[in-house]
Amino acid sequence: MLGVLDLFDDHHVTRTAEDIAKALDVSLPTSYRYVRQLLQVGLLQRVEDSHYALGPRIILLDHYIRRADPVLKVGLPVLRELVDATGFDCVVTEAFGQQVLDTHREMGGTPATLAYTRGRPRPLFQGAAPKVLLATLGTAPLKKLFDARRDEAVRCGLPGDWAEFRRHFAAIRKAGHYVSKGELEPQLAAVAAPVLKSDGGAWAAISLVFDTSRLAIVDLEKMVRLITEAATRIGGRLA
Questions:
Q1: pTM here?
Q2: Euclidean distance between CA atoms 60 and 57, whole angstroms
Q3: CB neighbours (10 Å) of residue 53?
Q4: Cα–Cα distance, 128 to 175 (Å, whole number)
Q5: Can you list the alpha helix ranges (DSSP code H) found in the chain?
Q6: Any coiled-coil ranges, and where (predicted)?
Q7: N or C of the chain: less Cβ packing under 10 Å?
Q8: Between 3.40.605.10, 3.30.70.2190, 1.20.1300.10, 3.30.450.40, what CATH number should domain 69-238 receive?
């Protein structure tokens, strides 16, 4: 029944009971029973002509997710300091398995127009935040990811050879940050650093996001220093 919730995405924001039955390979009566029970607890809502969408209880659950997120619990003051110091948006990005999501955005003086906001899955191999997160993976999980999604990585401009792919992310890990320029959205640049765990993995990545037109006038070295220092401070508080 909970698998019904996984059927909703950017291409299917509503579903009918018939859609659900076909997608889950269950009978139509079973599909209607799932829908009825999910409606009762607010995880689905009826929107039009026997179409169903995700329900209001998910908004409530999202509120609790934000309150429980360890990075947000200790990191928000640091993010606000970054925004005050630069005027740029500061974004928190986290990895959940092979899915990368923005979990928070602290607005700057002139907020950027972002196609990927909280909850919308980001491309795994494009942009500063996903790359600094991937760079914290150990060799075995990185190789597993490479084998599973090599073609996607190549389409995003990454090496198709495992040794080169590993060296690419080892260089990012050594640098401790990554600067992207128009990789995900052509008008945007970002400087990102990982919030590291004691085991070398990452809690999250934090990024300063700004218009590429500002690249000619911003002090990138200062931006890198600010973002890496902020990530270190948040990581220290989490430790």
A1: 0.88
A2: 5
A3: 16
A4: 13
A5: 17-24, 28-40, 57-68, 70-86, 128-134, 139-155, 162-175, 220-238
A6: none
A7: C
A8: 3.30.450.40
Q: For residue 20, how many other CB atoms are within 10 A of its CB?
A: 23
Averaged pLDDT of the chain: 93
Distance (Å, whole) CA 111 – CA 105: 10
For the 2-60 domain, the top CATH level (class) is mainly alpha
Instruction: Kindly report, residue by residue over 41-78, the tens digit of the pLDDT.
Output: 999 999 988 899 999 999 999 999 999 999 999 999 99
Q: What angle do CA 75, 81, 85 make, to 5 degrees?
A: 145
What span, in angstroms and rounded, lies between the C-alpha atoms of 98 and 146?
Answer: 11
Number of neighbouring beta carbons within 10 Å of residue 45: 16
CA gap 67, 133 in Å, rounded: 22
What number of H helices and E strands is found in the chain? 8, 8
Alpha carbon distance, N-terminus to C-terminus of the chain: 38
Q: What is the mean pLDDT of residues 207-218?
A: 91
pLDDT digits (tens, 9 = 90+) for 127-140: 999 999 999 999 99
- How far apart CA 196 and CA 203 sit, in angstroms, is 6
Backbone dihedral region for residue 97 (phi beyond 0: left; psi -120 to 50: alpha; all else: beta): left
Which pLDDT tens digit goes with each residue over 115-172? 888 888 899 999 999 999 999 999 999 999 999 999 999 999 999 999 999 999 999 9
pLDDT, residue 184, reads 85
Token reading at 168: 């690419």
